[in-house]
TrEMBL record:
SUPFAM superfamilies: Hect, E3 ligase catalytic domain. This is Ubiquitin-protein ligase E3A. InterPro entries: AZUL, AZUL_sf, E3A/B/C-like, HECT_dom, Hect_E3_ubiquitin_ligase. The lineage of its organism: Eukaryota, Metazoa, Chordata, Craniata, Vertebrata. GO terms for molecular function: ubiquitin protein ligase activity; zinc ion binding. Keywords: Biological rhythms, Cytoplasm, Metal-binding, Nucleus, Phosphoprotein, Proteasome, Transferase, Ubl conjugation pathway, Zinc, Zinc-finger. The active site is at residue 818. GO terms for biological process: animal organ development; nuclear receptor-mediated steroid hormone signaling pathway; positive regulation of macromolecule metabolic process; protein polyubiquitination; regulation of circadian rhythm; regulation of primary metabolic process; rhythmic process; system development. Residues 178-187 have a biased composition (Basic and acidic residues). Its main location: cytoplasm. It comes from Champsocephalus gunnari (Mackerel icefish). GO terms for cellular component: cytoplasm; nucleus; proteasome complex. It catalyses: S-ubiquitinyl-[E2 ubiquitin-conjugating enzyme]-L-cysteine + [acceptor protein]-L-lysine = [E2 ubiquitin-conjugating enzyme]-L-cysteine + N(6)-ubiquitinyl-[acceptor protein]-L-lysine. Its EC number is 2.3.2.26.
Length: 850
């Protein structure tokens, strides 16, 4: 064994004894010194031998039959030999002299001042030894110097706090305890700690990171309570991180040595990283270096954090959120100085993504039950977009996050995260991000510019909806331009809009025929801006006519008498009627309407359970989804799972189930072949619950839902909808919010034609509105805006206008739903205002030219 290797082992042993001896009585120190000396002799015997070429001791390196050991194995073996008081060879004279010199050196450890310059990595033992030395000296300069030197050196950090390194201090504690229990023995051995030698049976190899986390956390607890330690660590990180960046970007150090990840594990266990001294320089630089790690390394970090649990993930999340917020509020951003160009914010966001996925992995996840995507038929012909060089803007297929792919889990797979999704949203960032610029980076310059839409978890629904709005509008303008080009080539009149002319009393038939023809002949026309005209009416569609069109179509389709959907009086929700007599085209129309509503930024009054939106986003319905779609069945199946008695005798259930058809007649269905003959037992009841749920939510409505989803995807297949939004957010996009804050609406309303917020009629108006009941408020909202729901972000985002429409009169108030404008005459009294307004909102229907 070389001198350097021996010095490393001897160093830890020497310092361990010094540290332990200071905390025990003088009488015990002699036993420690003896034990230490014997262990060292065993170690030398195993590594260097006794020097006798004819030695017959099988545990001596000089024995011809001895198999050589590495230093760590020899150290552990020395402890075991010490425990059983194994045979020690008499060393030759030169060996005795060496041992004598070593004992003298180690005896002087407690008296001579050390500078610890030979420490080339840290262990818990080493840190405790240096701490004890500094406490005795009353000066922590030595500790500060050692920390600065180790934490600024990548190689030193890789070797530090290793879980595969023997812990001598714990071994000696065990020696002393065993000696007390067995006084007849001179010595006793020690078994290695769990932290020092972790269980090799690790179910997930990616979690096997050779860092003793428990020891590391104990060390940080001791260090971070001391003055000057944070300053030393900050300076060390500032020195370290540029080297990490270079190593990762140009040298592929992780590919060569996967233990390079230890550096990031060790540094991120520092619980003070969120404090101001780190936030200014050290943490941003460290995050930038961490972003250089290959995807495989980042995935290992995510899985590791997920295994640590809620407290650790939340601390990571709060640390990166603090960095982002601190940087955003400390800077001024504008059109020239974009937050997308701030490397600290970008790095913090990319690191926050790791905590986000760790929260998903550590929560309830379903990666198995996935709906099959409806594939578009491939065409070998070049599209006009490709001919014009615009294929990057309109490329098909959803984006795939490389980290998501490496982990094998998506946001939509999450049933319940460990930390709610909302806590990953950073409102300070949302206030300064410019979505028009960010959208361009997202769609065109993704390789060279960072877009926050690539990390959608950090954006709120309002901000993401702006991104979707830009995407939809650009597609509309593009389709308009392509139509003009086609018409020029073919010499036809251009038709730049998706125009629907319908009759009120035949709205379903007219809409179905027209939309079905378009979807078959030229589906791209559905990407044009929608214009609706009601036959015989003069209204020009600036948005309001479309709103009423959507509303009337849905009222007709969801009419229980038609039988396309069943309605639950308890939940107030609709579900697909599995025995409906309507053809698939009707369901495709419903999907088209939902897609067009999102595409044209309209809010619909639809009432589906959440499982519908999960299925639209690619997931199958599972047992837990029954809780809101079929609550009575969910409760029954839950009781079956929890039943403690004899399931087979008491329940008398089989794998044959029944449900009612459209006419109230029972329909029998075998969940398994010959299901009537298979009883539900204690052993197979979980299988029964899963198959029952799968039938109700998936198989029984497969035909109807597939047609419905096809219609939805015809409009949204090229949209970033699935990438940006979670199922609950898609529901908010389609349906809006039922929470109506008229106080917020009053604050944002604008006035025209001579009115102001101080006009008496306006004061009377708002007092009247606030006195209305919930239903009357919804009627007013329907009358003024065309829908009784609040848009994404609440009523404060509505921008309603109240304009003067003449002096006192008996005429009713009118509205331009296209512009959210209310035309209000200046009535002579508050009573007349209320009477006229109630009549207007109660009986209004139809469009006319004013």
């Amino acid at each position: 064994m070389g001198t350097t290797a021996w010095q490393e082992v001897n160093w830890d042993l020497s310092k361990t004894v010094y540290w332990v001896c200071r905390s025990v009585p003088e009488s015990s120190r002699m036993n420690r010194a003896t034990a230490k000396h014997l262990i060292e002799r065993y170690f030398r015997q195993l590594t260097e031998g006794c020097g006798n070429g004819d030695c017959t001791n099988e545990i001596c390196a000089s024995c011809p039959d001895f198999r050589s050991l590495d230093s760590n194995t020899a150290a552990a073996k020395a402890l075991d030999l010490f425990k059983v008081n194994a045979k020690l060879c008499n060393p030759n004279p030169s060996k005795k002299e060496q041992d004598s010199d070593l004992v003298n050196k180690m005896t002087d450890v407690g008296n001579a001042k050390e500078n610890f310059s030979d420490v080339n990595h840290l262990t818990e033992t080493t840190v405790c030894t240096i701490l004890s030395f500094c406490e005795e000296e009353g000066d922590y300069s030595t500790l500060i110097h050692v920390l600065g030197r180790i934490f600024s050196n990548a190689e030193a950090l890789i070797k530090s706090f290793r879980s595969d390194e023997p812990d001598m201090s714990k071994a000696l504690d065990s020696v002393e305890a065993t000696a007390k229990d067995n006084p007849e023995k001179k010595t006793a051995g020690a078994s290695s700690s769990a932290a020092a030698f972790p269980d090799e049976d690790v179910s997930d190899p990616s979690l096997k990171v050779l860092v003793d986390i428990s020891a590391l956390r104990r060390v940080y607890d001791k260090l971070l309570s001391l003055d000057r330690v944070d300053a030393a660590l900050v300076n060390a990180l500032i020195y370290l991180t540029p080297n990490l960046e270079l190593d990762l970007e140009y040298l592929d150090v992780y590919g060569t040595n996967p233990e390079y990840l230890n550096i990031f594990v060790v540094v991120l266990e520092n619980t003070n990283l969120h404090s101001p001294e780190y936030l200014e320089v050290a943490l941003p630089q460290f995050c930038k270096a961490m972003c250089k790690l290959p995807v495989a390394a980042l995935a290992r970090l995510v899985k590791l954090w997920a295994s640590y649990g809620l407290t650790h993930i939340r601390r990571m999340m709060e640390t990166f959120q603090q960095l982002i917020t601190f940087t955003v509020v400390s800077n001024d951003y504008d059109g020239e100085n974009l937050v997308n160009d701030d490397e600290s914010v970008v790095a913090g966001t990319q690191c926050l993504k790791l905590a986000y996925y760790a929260s998903i992995l550590a929560g309830d996840v379903d990666v198995e039950h996935n709906e099959e995507d409806i594939e578009d038929p491939e065409s070998d012909e070049l599209t006009l977009h490709e001919l014009l060089g615009e294929e990057r803007l309109y490329k098909k297929g959803p984006r795939v996050d490389p980290l998501q792919k490496e982990l094998g889990v998506r946001s939509v797979d999450c049933i319940k995260p460990l930390i709610p999704h909302e806590e990953f949203v950073n409102e300070s960032l949302n206030d300064v991000v410019e979505m028009d610029k960010d959208f361009t980076f997202f769609k065109v310059n993704a390789e060279t510019k960072f877009s926050f839409q690539s990390c959608p978890f950090i954006l709120n629904v309002i901000t993401k909806n702006q991104g979707l709005y830009y995407d939809n509008r650009i597609r509309m303008y593009s389709e308009r331009r392509l139509t003009a080009l086609y018409s020029m080539v073919q010499g036809q009149q251009p038709n730049p809009y998706l125009k629907l002319k319908v009759r009120r009393d035949h709205i379903i038939d007219d809409a179905l025929v027209r939309l079905e023809m378009i979807s078959m002949e030229n589906p791209s026309d559905l990407k044009k801006q929608l214009f609706v005209e009601f036959e015989g009416e003069q209204g020009v569609d600036e948005g309001g006519v479309s709103k009423e069109f959507f509303q009337l179509v849905l009222e007709e389709i969801f009419n229980p008498d038609i039988g396309m959907f069943s309605y639950d009086d308890d939940t107030k929700l609709f579900w697909f009627n599995s025995s409906s007599l309507e053809n698939e085209a009707q369901y495709t129309l419903v999907g088209l309407v939902l897609g067009l509503a999102i595409y044209n930024n309209c809010i619909l009054d639809v009432h589906f359970p959440m499982v519908v939106y999960r299925k639209l986003m690619g997931k199958k319905g599972i047992y837990l989804d029954l809780s809101d779609s079929h609550p009575a069945l969910f409760q029954s199946l839950k009781e079956l799972q929890e039943y403690g008695g004899d399931v087979e005798k008491d329940m008398m259930l089989t794998f044959q189930i029944s449900h009612m058809d459209l006419f109230g007649s029972p329909i029998l269905y075998d969940l398994k072949e010959d299901g009537e003959e298979i009883p539900v037992t204690q052993e197979n009841r979980q299988e029964f619950v899963e198959m029952y749920s799968d039938y109700i939510l998936n198989k029984s409505v497969e035909r109807q839902f597939r047609a419905f989803k096809k219609g939805f995807q015809i409009v949204t297949n090229e949209s970033p909808l699935k990438y940006l939004f979670r199922p609950e957010e898609v529901e908010l996009l389609i349906c809006g919010s039922r929470k109506l804050d008229f106080e917020a609406l009053e604050k944002t309303t604008e006035y025209d034609g001579g009115y102001s917020k101080d006009s008496q009629i306006i004061k009377d108006f708002w007092e009247t509105i606030h006195s209305f009941g919930e239903e009357q408020k919804r009627l007013f909202l329907q009358f003024t805006t065309g829908t009784d729901r609040a848009p994404v972000g609440g009523l404060g985002k509505l921008k309603m206008i109240i304009a003067k429409n003449g002096s006192d009169t008996d005429r009713l108030p009118t509205s331009h739903t296209c512009f959210n404008a209310l035309l209000l005459p200046e009535y002579c009294s508050k009573e007349k205002l209320k009477e006229r307004l109630l009549k207007a909102i109660t009986y209004a229907k139809g469009f006319g030219m004013l």
